[in-house]
Amino acid sequence: MNPVRIGRRSAVALTLSAVLGVAAFCWPLVVDPGAGIAHGRDAPLVFALLLPVALAVVLAELADGGMDSKAVAMLGVLSALGAALRPLGAGTAGIETIFFLMVLAGRVFGPGFGFVLGNTTLFASALLTGGVGPWLPYQMFGAAWVALGAGLLPKVSGRLELVLLASYGAVSSLCYGMLLNLSFWPFALGEGTTLSFVPGAPVADNLTRLVLFSLATSLGWDVGRAVTTVVLVLATGPVLLRVFRRAARRAQFVQPQEGTPRET
After folding, report:
1. Residue-level pLDDT at 165
2. In the chain, what are the domains?
3. Which one of 75, 138, 152, 161 has the largest count of C-beta atoms within 10 Å of its C-beta?
């Protein structure tokens, strides 16, 4: 059972956010070529829609009794920690030092908590590093999905759990890079090359072009992010999972099962 449970309002808010996110990333693949929608005008709108959705998840959790003041305090601590860690690696050969934290926290505190954590961590780090721009809402969406997905992984324990989290961290890191490419790739290249977006072409054809574009341009950074996440999950997972679960029990996000010894 997840420490921060998802009620009906929370599930509705998360579903709406998922629909909004898919639309934000994928609209160029399906929009009419003559629509003339410019990326520079759409990103601020996505940003304006994203923050209320994230807030709606928090309010829905509060209304359903799943996220109390202690959970909000934990959210603030982890967001600040992630914002402080990100400058240590961001932009250097693809090294990314916050994905492991979102994967582990999402695993322990649940998908709703993870979704909000991904948003607040990327937003706080952007303010800290001056990285606010039209790319930020897409980074926030992508990170939110990474942490949310960690909370939806099947229940396993011990070494198998670490292997599962490390594998998920690698796959989600690669998918995150491709999603960010999708946010700007349709507008980055002119037509006429095998890597270019072709307005109105079948979705499968354009997705193939996106994969080729990612392999040619960002694979090194994406692999660096995946390797960093795997190494940090395996290195810190045994300790951080224990610490997070102890914090969740002491904050009474969940009650210890009958017969389970209390942590001291």
Report:
1. 97
2. 8-250 (1.10.1760.20)
3. 138
Which tens digit of pLDDT belongs to each residue from 70-123?
Answer: 888 888 999 999 988 888 765 565 678 889 999 999 999 988 888 889 988 998
Q: Is the whole model's pTM more than 0.85, yes or no? A: no
Q: Rounded distance, CA 79 to CA 75, Å?
A: 6
More confident residue, 171 or 251: 171
* Tokens (6 digits) for 19: 């629909």
